[in-house]
Amino acid sequence: MSKRRIAIFGSTGSIGRQTLEVIEANPSLFSVEILTAQNNVELLVNQALRYGPKIVVIGNEEKYQEVLQALSGTGISVASGEQALEDTAGLDIYDTMIAAIVGFAGLRPTLKAIENGKTIGLANKETLVVAGDIVMKKAKEHHVHLVPVDSEHSAIFQCMQGEDYKKIDRIILTASGGPFLGRKPNFLVNVKREHALQHPNWSMGAKISVDSATLMNKGLEMIEAKWLFDVTLQQIKVVIHPQSIIHSMVEFEDGSMKAQMGMPDMRVPIQYALTYPARTRSNFPRYNFKDPAQLTFDEPDIKTFRNLFLAQKALETGGNMPCILNAANEIAVYAFLKNRIGFLEMTELIEQAMEKIPFIQNPTLNDYFESDAEARTFAASLVEI
Ligand code: NAD
Ligand code: MG
C-alpha cells in the first residue's frame, strides 16, 4: 500500500503538532508533503528538517528570508504569504489536508483543497461556521470526504458509519463546561487571560481555549454540526459532561442512542481522520472505567454564558449571521487575550456586531468576505485595536 501524502496547514499549532505525533508513530502509513505556519519560524524549520516535506509556507511575509535561509540546501521549497497558502493547497502533491489553521484565515486554503479534490481532515471549525453552505456544496460537487477532527464531530461521524443521516432524531453535543463551569457573572467579570487559558481536560491553542471558557466553542460546534450532519438547531442538544469521556452522541428515530467514548486526547480523532475509513492501532492512554468512575450530565447555563445563546441565535437566523458572529468573536478573543477587554465584554462586542452589520439572507462567497471584514472593523473600533 502506498503511503498517504499529508499536508498540514497550521503545523505549528496544537492540532498541527499532534498530527505530526500521529504521523511519526505510523511512518509506514504517511508521508509529510506540506507544512505551513504563520509566525513560528523556529518550530516550522525544525519540523521541516525532521519530516522533509516538499514545501513549507510561512504566512507572515516578513519571515520569508529567515525560513529560506534556514532551509537552504535541503531541497525543500519555501513560499510565503496568504496567496501562497492558497496556491499550495491547489497543488497535486498530497492526498489529505489537515486543516489546522485557526479562524477565518483557514477558509481560503481549505476551499482550494476541496476544489482540488483532496480529502480534508477538518479541525478548522470556523470554515464551516462562516461559509458552511458553500463549503458543503463544493465538497459534494468535488466528491470530497470532509472528515471532522473536532472531537465531538469525529464522535458523531464515527457513530454514523453504516447509518442513514435521515434517521437522526437528535445530536447530543457534549461540552466539558470549561474552566468556569458553575461560575456566575459576579465571578466572570474579574476573570483574566491566565485563568481562561487553563482548560481542565484539553491543552489547546489560545483562541479555542478562550472559546471553551465562554462556551462560544460549543456554539461554533453547533453550527459546525448543522452543516456536517444536516440537522437543525432544534435537533442539536448541548449537554455539560465535565469528564469529557463521551465525546458526543447520536439519537436515532427508533430511540436508540450511540455514543463514542475515550480519553480526551485529540490524537485519536486526528488519527481517525488520517486513516479514514480504516482504523489503525494506537498506544494512546485508554479509559479504564475507574478514572473517572462516574460520568455526569447537566444543562448548560446559557443565561451566564451568553455566547452560546448568541451562537444559537446566529444559527437560527442563518445567512451571514454566523459569519458576523465569528468575526466579532475573533476580535473579541484577541482583545481579551491582550487584556484590552474583560471576559463579559466579549459577549457585548459580538452582540453589537450582530445588530450593526447588514444581514444578508443568501450570501455569496464574496459577501462572506465582506461581512467578515465589516464585522472585524466594527468590533475593532469598539475596543480600539
Ligand atoms: P493554534 O493557535 O495552536 O494553531 C494555529 C495554527 O494556525 C498555527 O500553526 C498558526 O501558525 C496557524 N495560523 C494562525 N493564524 C494564521 C493565519 N492568519 N494564516 C495562516 N495560518 C495561521 O490553534 P489550534 O488549537 O491548533 O486550533 C486549530 C484549529 O483547530 C482551530 O480552528 C480550532 O478551533 C480547531 N480545534 C482545535 C482543537 C484543539 O484541541 N487544539 C480541538 C478541536 C478543534
Ligand atoms: Mg470540540
Automatic annotation (TrEMBL):
Domain 1-deoxy-D-xylulose 5-phosphate reductoisomerase C-terminal: 146-229
Pfam families for the chain: DXP_redisom_C, DXP_reductoisom, DXPR_C
InterPro entries in the record: DXP_reductoisomerase, DXP_reductoisomerase_C, DXP_reductoisomerase_N, DXPR_C, DXPR_C_sf, NAD(P)-bd_dom_sf
Catalytic activity as recorded in UniProt: 2-C-methyl-D-erythritol 4-phosphate + NADP(+) = 1-deoxy-D-xylulose 5-phosphate + NADPH + H(+)
Stated name of the protein: 1-deoxy-D-xylulose 5-phosphate reductoisomerase
Cofactor (UniProt): Mg(2+); Mn(2+)
Magnesium found in the keyword field: yes
Keywords annotated in UniProt: Isoprene biosynthesis, Magnesium, Manganese, Metal-binding, NADP, Oxidoreductase
Described function: Catalyzes the NADPH-dependent rearrangement and reduction of 1-deoxy-D-xylulose-5-phosphate (DXP) to 2-C-methyl-D-erythritol 4-phosphate (MEP).
Residues at which NADPH binds: 12-15, 40, 124, 126, 205
Binding of Mn(2+), residues: 150, 152, 221
MF annotations from Gene Ontology: 1-deoxy-D-xylulose-5-phosphate reductoisomerase activity; manganese ion binding; NADPH binding
Family: Belongs to the DXR family.
Residues where 1-deoxy-D-xylulose 5-phosphate binds: 125, 151-152, 176, 199, 212, 217-218, 221
NCBIfam families reported for this sequence: Dxr, PRK12464.1
EC number assigned by the record: 1.1.1.267
Pathway(s) the chain acts in: Isoprenoid biosynthesis; isopentenyl diphosphate biosynthesis via DXP pathway; isopentenyl diphosphate from 1-deoxy-D-xylulose 5-phosphate: step 1/6
UniProt-listed GO biological process terms: isopentenyl diphosphate biosynthetic process, methylerythritol 4-phosphate pathway involved in terpenoid biosynthetic process
Enzyme superclass (EC): oxidoreductase
Domain 1-deoxy-D-xylulose 5-phosphate reductoisomerase N-terminal span(s) in chain numbering: 6-132
Domain DXP reductoisomerase C-terminal: 261-377
